[in-house]
Model the fold of this input.
Amino acid sequence: MKARKKIKTKERILQVAVKMFNEQGVQNVTSRHIANEMGIAYGNVDYHYKNKEVLLLAIYKEMRSEMSNSYLLREEYSTSLEHFHRLLAHLEQFQYKYRFFNLDVLEISRTYPKLNKILHKTIELRKEQMANLFIDFINDGYIEKRIDDRYNRLQHTIRVIITFWLSQEDVLSSFKYIEKGEMSRHIWELLLPYLTETGLKEFDRLVTRFGYL
Done:
């Protein structure tokens, strides 16, 4: 039996930081809090991550890498709509994994300039990737080709929902859209009016096989 690989202190700090940020919010957690949670001297945290921006940058780089794989890696057997469906499911799970970032994204972007710069680059990248997904939908016959800006607005609306889904859970709690899979369901309901007959059949197959999460 192979021995379990020991997690390095630097990696463990990231894991504990994410957990504490999720529970308490970014502004309420310091390196001393993280060190106390880990049972180490706070100087060890500062040695690996000299300030909170450096720590958040390291977390965000992991976040960016994880989601980039989901946007880009389409399994050979899957259709473009199945890729999109699986992407939405991963995005929703991803948001809960890094809950703090989605809830505090505006504050984080205003407070930490280096992170703000990378965040805006990521936003532009995701915009391009979402547009490419729609090109695949058209080429595969799942949605009709259009020459107006409707798809651009639809793509933007989808990105807004993804970015602020957790915030609406807190702010608009009376609407009760808190069940897992609801984000995917909302986005699909925006897309449904644009699906061709072929697209609708594929959508039915996906929901029947996978559900919304």
Notes: The radius of gyration is 20 Å. Residues 1-5 have pLDDT under 50 and may be disordered. The chain has two domains: 1-50, 60-210.
